[in-house]
């Protein structure tokens, strides 16, 4: 910009050139959207199939319905003991609810904890069809409503059908490390443990960062925003090279 705040355009650009870039954007976004959709489907399926397997193995919950009681009991306890988190009994899929991941491990921190508690409320409302407190979930997902109408509780494996990629990512961040590693093994055919059987939190941090990046790209594409600026912004120390190329 000049001293008066007006934009300065050093070169003339033909409108047809802008159309070419726009068409290239659309083609590229179509390819990305397909891959992101496939990733999201796999991430949801793998995460909740492993969670359901844990409920069957550890609680003999063959119908995967115990999560509703776990959330209900947690909510009641949390309303009384929210300042004494050490005595709270967490649902299996959110033992790290009040923890934040760092490159060296988890630390207890209330960062974004209310969003996580709200997500538990949403899952409870989805699974029971009830409307409680500020949770006014009205899902139109046929699979979930079928089980709620027929059995009063929808199995846990139906819940991801009504959750966003961001919410699935939030659930992943709250899981115990052993469950996170099991999901990672299926998704990437790799492990978070090194040769000395030590959990590598830095690797977990990078993976969750990639999931967040994919979620952000998905939102950009779905809202028809330009994808190239999003991609360029992530390239370290190369923005000038791209700009002048």
Which term fits the overall shape?
globular
Tally of contiguous helical segments: 9
Strand content: under 5%
Cross-sheet strand order for the largest sheet: 1-2
- Calculate Rg over CA atoms: 22 Å
Query: N- to C-terminal separation?
Result: 21 Å
Explain this structure to me?
The chain has 245 residues and is mostly helical. It has one domain. The protein is 58% helix and 3% strand. The protein contains nine helices and two strands, in the order ααββααααααα. Strands 1-2 form a two-stranded antiparallel ribbon. Strand 1 and strand 2 form a beta hairpin. Helix 1 (15-59) packs across helix 6, helix 2 (66-81) packs across helix 3 (113-128) and helix 5 (165-174) runs antiparallel to helix 7. The longest helix is centred in the N-terminal third of the chain and has 45 residues, at 15-59. The radius of gyration is 22 Å and the shape is globular. The mean pLDDT is 90.
Summarize the structure.
With 245 residues, the protein is mostly helical. The chain has helices at 15-59, 66-81, 113-128, 142-151, 165-174, 177-188, 201-222, 228-232, 239-244, and strands spanning 99-102, 105-108.
Give the SSE map:
Blueprint: H1 15-59, H2 66-81, E1 99-102, E2 105-108, H3 113-128, H4 142-151, H5 165-174, H6 177-188, H7 201-222, H8 228-232, H9 239-244
Antiparallel strand pairs: 1-2
Supply the key terms:
globular; two-stranded antiparallel ribbon; 245 residues; mainly alpha
